[in-house]
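Final report, results section. Input specification for complex C-07:
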Amino acid sequence: MHQLLNADDGGQTVLERVTDWGLIGLVLLNAGAVVLESVKSWDRRYHPVFASIELVSVFIFTLEYVLRVWSSAEDRRYRRPWLGRLRFVLSPLALIDLLSILPFYLSFGLFDLRILRVVRLFRVLKVARYVRALHVIGKVIRRKRAELLVTLGVLGLMLLMVSSLMYTIESEAQPDKFGSIPDTMWWGVATLTTVGYGDVFPITPAGKLLSSVIAVLGLGLFAIPTGILASGFSEQLHEQHAADAAFSYCPHCGHKL
Amino acid sequence: MHQLLNADDGGQTVLERVTDWGLIGLVLLNAGAVVLESVKSWDRRYHPVFASIELVSVFIFTLEYVLRVWSSAEDRRYRRPWLGRLRFVLSPLALIDLLSILPFYLSFGLFDLRILRVVRLFRVLKVARYVRALHVIGKVIRRKRAELLVTLGVLGLMLLMVSSLMYTIESEAQPDKFGSIPDTMWWGVATLTTVGYGDVFPITPAGKLLSSVIAVLGLGLFAIPTGILASGFSEQLHEQHAADAAFSYCPHCGHKL
Amino acid sequence: MHQLLNADDGGQTVLERVTDWGLIGLVLLNAGAVVLESVKSWDRRYHPVFASIELVSVFIFTLEYVLRVWSSAEDRRYRRPWLGRLRFVLSPLALIDLLSILPFYLSFGLFDLRILRVVRLFRVLKVARYVRALHVIGKVIRRKRAELLVTLGVLGLMLLMVSSLMYTIESEAQPDKFGSIPDTMWWGVATLTTVGYGDVFPITPAGKLLSSVIAVLGLGLFAIPTGILASGFSEQLHEQHAADAAFSYCPHCGHKL
Amino acid sequence: MHQLLNADDGGQTVLERVTDWGLIGLVLLNAGAVVLESVKSWDRRYHPVFASIELVSVFIFTLEYVLRVWSSAEDRRYRRPWLGRLRFVLSPLALIDLLSILPFYLSFGLFDLRILRVVRLFRVLKVARYVRALHVIGKVIRRKRAELLVTLGVLGLMLLMVSSLMYTIESEAQPDKFGSIPDTMWWGVATLTTVGYGDVFPITPAGKLLSSVIAVLGLGLFAIPTGILASGFSEQLHEQHAADAAFSYCPHCGHKL
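Structure output:
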């Protein structure tokens, strides 16, 4: 577990650990509630349960948020009383905390309720504070930023040109499905990613030929980001493993060395 | 074959080898019988044959199980007469052996017959005792446990959020297919894994845009476990190869060194 | 940005940079216009806007082209007054520049208008001058040319033989979909690339068996170009990174060393 | 081209080269003829052309075969007059040569004509003699034999168990599509390889859940052979490249060193 979670840090008191695990549990309970609430039959039967979970969660998360903002001044990074707190409020993790309680308060106003209910699911991002994995993903993406941007750009260019070609070829035979370049892009994505739902496919011989060439060539190009991410991930985990090994524990007292 | 099977071990007598290969053959015969029995026309015509195979197999597997439990006390690991045998009974391979005969005896009771008939197919796991490959897979998964858990967790999180977003966008246009978040997850899995059966796909422009972004970005993330497993596999086989080479045979007498 | 674009070169004046970024912007505006113009409802409402963008773009791109050809004589590579300019006109980047204005002038003649309108989208290739990424892709493909040709050839051979086999098996059961080898190849590509639109699939047991074997074995073969491209890409970026690091900037004056 | 073809060998006379390239051309012409002949409308119109190509090809290939068998005795490997020739006839390349003329002679007998016509397409395998790439693929598969067998075995086992589970879950809801374990395997292959034609998919919640889990987990396992083949391919090409470099040409006279 040590490799996956930050919550298991060595220097925590028992109370801190209980609080952390309690909050993680509450976040997961919330995620489950949002998912089940979206099923009509469950919502009809257990509406009071879901409403109570919501009420209690918002109360606890609000309390958590206030305390976090208040105590942020003790953190080295946000030491100045007001400006420091403001900077903490604008940090990504604090914004997630805010976003997970704001919809509730906004729902008393004039906003559309249904969207707000689903936005609640973004509360699951609160676990980002505890899950090391998300930090790893973030670092991998930052580390391979240049390569990923390059390939995404090339893929976008390719999609654009392929879709415009296909539009020229197929729009007459199937004006409802290949009627414009944006419409044809829906086919392009389905083919290049090999999802192939089957709602849109060429029927003319020329369209089928182009589709075949694109599927084969596209497979190669679309797999490049995959390769980049995979290698970045393995490098990152390898480095972290080495760092973990270097930063070891005393065999006698169990303290960090 | 030496690389694939444990059955070919150097230190076995001819009788042991014959028994091992006989049991492997019986397991494969059983697998074939279960598969063919599920085809109605075959079952109608050859029912007595399948029933005989079942009867003989259960008899032999029961005998094997009893003998294995009895003789387990001679193994160093389970030396104590009763407690050792109990510990052997609870070991994974012994549990598989038990599971492959238990359904037959339970079917005399009040349990649903059809499920029991299929559970019989899990007898194929009995070959795990002889097939080194399954040990390799097991070791690879254990070796890459942390990375796999991390990515599976992230993928689960991503699936959850993507499905909830899609639910908000598409549930009005297609209430029968995107009617709840769990329903929408079926679309999410089909898209992220690029299976794309074609039974569920977005029809609104916003839904198509989200689906496209997810298919492209998801391809990268969903391929990470693949990369991890592939590299783990090649590392494992490489190490084993090195170990095999180090543990060589005398060129004069053919004995292990 | 330095890693992605050539436009950011150190030795440029402010005017040069403004021109470069202006041209990139114009190219992207053009791409957007072509895409939106293909949507009927947009075209009806904003036709004058699209026409104006076209007119202004062609004017500027023509001016750019004339100036580039004129000034090419100052480039070391094309120093001779007329022969040098001719050689510049035939270089790939200059041909793209020519292709992005030619359709406009041809549309006054007797050519089909619709195709010319889409050919305009190939103007996006003008950004190739500024985007380093396309150079990288080009280098990767050149570097792995031999491997890619080998695998593409093998894949083509495999597709040919698999489709002819499937044609023999399925053409009687589904004469409309597997009626000839070229028709069956459409199934072959959809299966080997795992796109699987779902418009063509075998229904006979023998066809399903062949399709299954091909899907599994083909997965492996079709992924080889992917692996080759991915490794070529990572090697290329690695080398470039090393070259960038070696070709560093003076910490005092900011000039290249 | 040197890297792709064996035909370009240094020690060949002009006549040998012309013969080799002529035979390659004839093989490709034959492949094209078989493919086009399968299209009814082409066959009706150009039947005499296809028949002539067939006749001439069989004549030349028969001549080639007789000459090859006759002259094989001069090869070091098949030196003995009769036994050597017999051993040559049984070598893989000679068998392909025989298979590409035999169907023609058999079609005068009582065999089904349509299958024989398609078997002719296997003549394309005659290019194996000249295309180095096929040797490379062969070597890669031999080099990674053990790993490939292991994973294919595990995948087969997984497919068997997954299909039997799905059969238990879905056979009642969709008896026409999941009516027996072999039928369900068609779904299993489509899902595990992510082809997803869309003709068979689960409709019960339990079936969808199982399908989702399998698609995700299966993706990882099914990609292992891919990874093995890709790495084997790159190793093989790397070694060959090194060998080519070591076996270089004299800079003065152009002869091999």
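The radius of gyration of chain A is 25 Å. Residues 205-246 of chain A form the longest helix (42 residues). This concludes the modelling results for the funded period.
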